[in-house]
Fold this sequence. Notes:
Oligomer: single chain
Number of helices: 7
Strand order of the largest sheet: 3-2-1-4-9-6-10
Structural class: alpha/beta
Shape: globular
Helix content: 25-40%
Amino acid sequence: MKIVILAAGIGSRLGNPYPKPLTTLKNGKKILEHQIGNLTGYFNKDDIMVVVGFKKDLIMEEQPDLLFIYNPDFDQTNTSKSLLRALYKCKNESVLWLNGDVVFEPEMLKKMIKTIERGQSFIAVNNSVVGEEEVKYSLSGEGFIKEISKQVVNAPGEAVGINYIASGHISSFIQSLEQCEPNDYFEKGLELSIKRDGIDIIPVDISEFKCVEVDFREDLDTANTIF
């Protein structure tokens, strides 16, 4: 299994002059450093790849031992195309990927590992809150993900930005990401694979754990309060 961290974006909503994953938390750790520390508690560091773009050298100098993939179109594309660049490097493997602005408890990964070991594709979700501006989901009658986007109504919860695609689904997902428009989020690719190929993706509820996706200054304040 490979792990991909999406860190190519400008992150303009937070207002930093540097990549958002390099935002320093009050505990002294940068967001990316926090993520790497959590991931390497359960996975091999050599399996981690970071997609970079905006001021890429800053991230590469911060974590020189990682593997990096450059998205030269970072200012014209969204996460669907950044993730696609990474998946081209691991076409026959399963992939766990996360947004480069997610701050989370390491124990959360332990719960996900059980689903990974079953080879089951999933999205991590928080069912204790449903933010209007967040990516939300709906379920089919069988309990699989049916829709995943910011436009979903009457959603049971929201996606937290950590996801897993099994090796058997990777080919379909790559094709779907290729069909996405440049400004689409990777969730659009998941929806396309679900609708076109009927791949089964389940929600993994991590509501019991602390997890914050830092989009705005208020999110950073929340992350600093929690962690």
